[in-house]
Amino acid sequence: MRYSQMLIRTAKEIPAEAEVISHQLLLRAGFIRKLTSGLYTYLPLGLAAIRKVEAIVREEMNRAGAQELLMPMVQPADLWQESGRWVKYGPELLRFQDRHNREYCLGPTHEEVITDIARRELHSYRQLPVNLYQIQTKFRDEIRPRFGLMRGREFIMKDAYSFDVSDEAAGQSYQTMRDAYTRIFQRCGLEFRAVEADSGSIGGSFSHEFMVLADTGEDTLVICQECEYAANVEKAKVVLLAEPASETTDDSTGEVQDCIKVETPGMKKVDRVAEFLKVTPQQVIKTMIYLADEEPVAVLVRGDREVQSVKLKNLLDVAEVELAEDDTVWKLTKLPVGYIGPVNIPIKMVADQEVMTMINAVTGANEKGHHLTGVTPGRDFTPVAVGDLRQITKEDRCPVCQGALELTEGIEVGHIFKLGTNYSEAMHAVYQDQEGKEQAMVMGCYGIGISRVVAAAIEQNHDENGIIFPLPLAPVQVIVLNLSIKNEETTATAEKLYQDLQAAGIEVLLDDRDERPGSKFKDADLIGIPYRVTVGKTWEKEGKVELRTRRDGTTTLLDYEQAASTITTSIQDELNALK
Fold first, then answer.
1. Of 84, 250, 272, 345, which one is least surrounded by beta carbons within 10 A?
2. Is 284 left (phi over 0), alpha (psi -120 to 50) or beta?
C-alpha cells in the first residue's frame, strides 16, 4: 500500500464530539467517520484493524470446533414473541413493520434465530454437541450512544451458540469457549481479566465477562488480591462479616430499645441526621424509592451504603429499575422525601441483608421533620424480600477467601453465558435421547465485540502522540518513510525495501508523499504502526536505514541488506510469542 494512494486523512485537533481517547484517536488517525449518532463508517485503516481481530477470532473458534454460519440481521417478531423477549428486551430493540404490516426487528443478538435453526436441523443426541458462530453487524438502539466504537448503536460482533444434551456437557462447552476466549485476547496482545458477571437481557444462570483493563472503562471490576476471584461490581457478592450489629447508642449491652419519634427539622440527608442525633451514618437505615417495571418499591440499605440497581432488578425479577424522582415519590406515596422510613410504609419493601442485622437504628418517620430512633428489623418492620442489594466497596472482603479486594476499571470485550434451557424450552428445541425421549437442548451463548476490541486496545495502548497498536491488531505492521522523495537513490532504496518486505509477507505501508519529515513522523505515530523504517539522511551519509519501534521508541541503525530480514524476524518472533 502506498500512502499517496490510500484514503488516509489525519487531523491535529481533537474532535469536539469525542470524549474518550479511543474515539479521539480513531477520528484523528482517519480510521472511522461518523454518519449519524452511534453509526460509523470504517475507513480503510479502521477496517484493516477490524479484519485483524476477525482473523484471530475465526482461527480460535474453528480450533475450538465451532462452525461458522451467517444469519439475517432482520428478524421476525414471532420468534421473539415465542421466547418472551419481544416485550422484555426493552427500547434498545429496534422494531419496525414491512410493507405487509408484519413486525420485525434489527437483531441485537441472535438467540431466537439460532434456536429456530437448531429445532429445525438437530433432532438426535447423535448430532450433539454443536457450536455455531457468526461474525456480523448488530444493532441496539442505545438511548445515549457515545464514546465512538465503545458504545455505538451499530457494531460488529462475533456471537456463538452451543447446543448440548445435558448441563454437564454444556459446562464442558462453556469451558471450551472460556479457554478459546483466553487465547483470543492473549493473541490480541491485550491485558485482560475474566470476571463473574450478570447475565442481563440475554438470560441464563451463569456468565463471565472478559474485560480489558483500562482507566477509561465503563465497568468497575472487583478483584481479590489473594485469590483468583474477580467479578463485575454488578455481580460481586457482599459477605456479611461476623461483627456486632450496628446500634444507635453507645450502650454496649446490645439491648433493644423502644421505637421513639423525634423532631429533626430540615434534616433530610443521612449525614445531617446522623450529626443531629449524635450517631454515625452506619447506624441509619436509608429508604430509597425505586420504580420496578413502573411499580414503586422501597429499598432499604445502611446509611453509608449505595443500592446496586442490577442486584435489585434480579432480586425483584423485573426488566427495569430506576430511582424515582422527588415529585414522583410524592405522587406515588404521599410521603415526604428525606423523611421516608420502613415503619408502616404503605408500599412494597425490600431490604439489603446488612439492614436485617441492625438494632436500634435511625429511620425516617414518614412525617415531615421527624425521624424514628430505636428501630429494629423484624419487630418494627418486615420486608417482603431480603438479599444482597448494595454496591460492594474495597473495604469489603473477598467472598471466596476473605482476602483484600481491589476495585479497578475495565472495558467489556467479550461475554459468555450458560443459558440452560431458557430458549430451547420456550421455543421447543428438543432432541431424542438414547431412549427415544424428547429432551430440551442445553444452550450456551458466547459474544465478542469485534469493533469494541479495537477501541479497547487503543484505550489500553496510547501515548500523547497517538495510538500504539499491539502488533496483532495493527492495520499494517511496518511503515517505510521516504524522507527525500526528490532524491532518486533514496526513493529507489525505499521502494526496494517496500518490495522486499512485501515479498517476505509483511504488511507494509510506503509513505511516498512529498511532505515534510516532521509531518510524516507525526502521522506514523498517530496511526500507531508498530515498526517505522526511515530512509533519509542516514542512508545518504552512511548507507543505513533507521528502524524504530512505536511502543518503546527504541531505534536501531541497519544496513540496507539486513533491514528486510531483521524486521521480518522481529515480527514473526513477536507474533509467535503471543500464540
1. 250
2. beta
